[in-house]
From TrEMBL:
Gene3D superfamilies associated with the record: P-loop containing nucleotide triphosphate hydrolases
Keyword Protein biosynthesis included in the entry's annotation: no
GO terms of molecular function: ATP binding; ATP hydrolysis activity
Domain ABC transporter: 2-232
Any matching Pfam family: ABC_tran
Presence of the UniProt keyword Cytoplasm in the record: no
Alphabetized CDD domains for the sequence: ABC_DR_subfamily_A (cd03230)
Protein name (Swiss-Prot/TrEMBL): ABC transporter ATP-binding protein
InterPro entries recorded: AAA+_ATPase, ABC_transporter-like_ATP-bd, P-loop_NTPase
Amino acid sequence: MIATESLSKRFPRVTALDRLSVDIGPGVTGLVGANGAGKSTLIKILLGLSPATEGRAEVLGLDVATRGAEIREQVGYMPEHDCLPPDVSATEFVVHMARMSGLPPTAARERTADTLRHVGLYEERYRPMGGYSTGMKQRVKLAQALVHDPKLVLLDEPTNGLDPVGRDDMLGLIRRVHTDFGISVLVTSHLLGELERTCDHVVVIDGGTLLRSSSTSDFTRDSGSLAVEVTDSDAVPDGTGALAAALAAAGLTVQPAGGTGEYAAAGPGHVLLVDVAGEETYDTVRDAVAGLGLGLVRMEQRRHRIAEVFRTDEQPQQTHAWGAAPQERGSTDAA
Ligand SMILES: Nc1ncnc2c1ncn2[C@@H]1O[C@H](COP(=O)(O)OP(=O)(O)OP(=O)(O)O)[C@@H](O)[C@H]1O
C-alpha cells in the first residue's frame, strides 16, 4: 500500500523526516510517534501535497512526486485539525466533498447518507456543524475521508480531543472501516496503547526516523511468564503468600505483579508472575494450588503490552509516544 525509501523532509530549522524507509501493507496500520515525530509531515508527502527533500515514496504503486492527483483520487484523508465550516450541515459538507472527488450528484447524496450512517451521525446531520461536539466533528471528518470509497484512508490523530468513551467508539469505527468495507487504514496517534487494540501492524517513528515496524502480535508476543491469581481460604488466609512460598520451594521464580495496570482490579500483590520454565510449570502451579486447597481465579500466559517494549528507566511522559492514554477506559497499560 505504502512504501518509502530513505525519505527525508528538512525545514530550515528542523528535520521532520530523516531517511525513513518503511513498507506498509493492507489492513489497519498504526503510525505512532510523540508530538513532532513527523507523522503529519509523512502523511502530507504521501498525499503528494508536500514535496520530500530527499528519497522517494509510493502509495498504491504511484510515485508521490509525480502522481499526487491520482493518489488523492484513491486515498481518503482525515486531517488532524478542525477544518469544518461552521455554518453548513454535515450532509451538505460531505456531499460537497463527494462531488469534489468526482461523484455525480445522485451518487454523492447516496454515498453521503450511507457514510454518515456508518459513522453514527443521524438526525444531527442536518444541523450546522458549528454546534457539533468534538466527537461529532471527528465523525464528519472521517465520513468525508470515506465518501468516495477509497482503497486507503490516512487518518491523522482521529482520537484527538475525545474523552475515553469517544476514543473507544472512534477506534471501533476505524476497525470497521477495514472489516466492513475492506478499506486499508493508516492511523496516527501519539498513544501506543490505543493502537494496540485497533491495528494489525504498528510503525513507530521518533524524530523522523523509524524505531520499529512490526505486527501488533510481534509487539505483544508472549512474555514467558504466567499470571496466577488465587482465592484465600479459611485455612489459608493469605493464599497468595502461601502459593508464592510453595512455588518458590518447588524451584520456580515468582514475583508479585504491580498493583496498577492490567492487574489493578485484583489489588496490589494479588497476582503472582511465575517464570515459565517449561510445560511442567503449569502442572506445578496447578498442584500447588490444589495442595493448599485454594481456588484458582486465573492462570494465564502473560503477553507484553506494546508500551513495555519501549519502557525505559525514566517515567514515561503522557505526551510521549509510548505513554498510555490518560484515564483510558478499560486500559490495561501500566505505563
Ligand atoms: N511547515 C513547516 N515548517 C517548519 N517546520 C515544520 C513544518 N511542518 C512541520 N514542521 C516541524 O516538523 C516536525 C514534525 O512535525 P509533524 O507535524 O510532522 O509532527 P507530528 O508527528 O505530526 O506531530 P503532531 O501530532 O504534533 O502534529 C516538528 O518539529 C514541526 O515543528
